[in-house]
């Protein structure tokens, strides 16, 4: 299952980059975000969460530096939408896991 998640993540990055280079469609950002959410659900296991979150944040920040360039900026914007969806799922999973574990510790 983890290998499928990794393949889907790589395909999502390639699709988002290619979409930003020339494909225009009103549903494209929503589709990329939903696919990112799906990849976030499938891809990241508990061991990889910190590494994934830190790397994803670094990618988001570094991709924003390319916004001034027309084609590359559009491509990186779509990559940020895709990765942002995956980061949202992983961050929520970590947040709720942390909150619930602290809740159980206080009631024991």
Explain what you see.
With 108 residues, this protein is mainly alpha-helical. The protein has one domain. The chain has helices spanning 2-20, 28-43, 49-64, 70-106. The radius of gyration is 16 Å and the shape is elongated. The protein starts with a helix and ends with a helix. The model has no long low-confidence stretch (mean pLDDT 82).
Concise account of the structure shown:
With 108 residues, this protein is mainly alpha-helical. The protein is built from four helices and no strands.
Annotation keywords:
4 helices, 108 residues, 81% helix
- Quaternary structure: single chain
Task: Give a short account of the largest sheet.
Answer: none
Quick check: average pLDDT? Answer: 82
| Portion of residues within helices | over 70%
Beta fraction: under 5%
Low-confidence stretches: none
According to DSSP, the number of beta strands is: 0
Total separate domains: 1
Q: State the secondary-structure class.
A: mainly alpha
> Using only CA atoms, what is the Rg?
16 Å
Which shape, going by the Cα principal axes? elongated
First and last CA, distance: 35 Å
Q: Write down the secondary-structure element order.
A: HHHH
Q: Give the helix tally.
A: 4
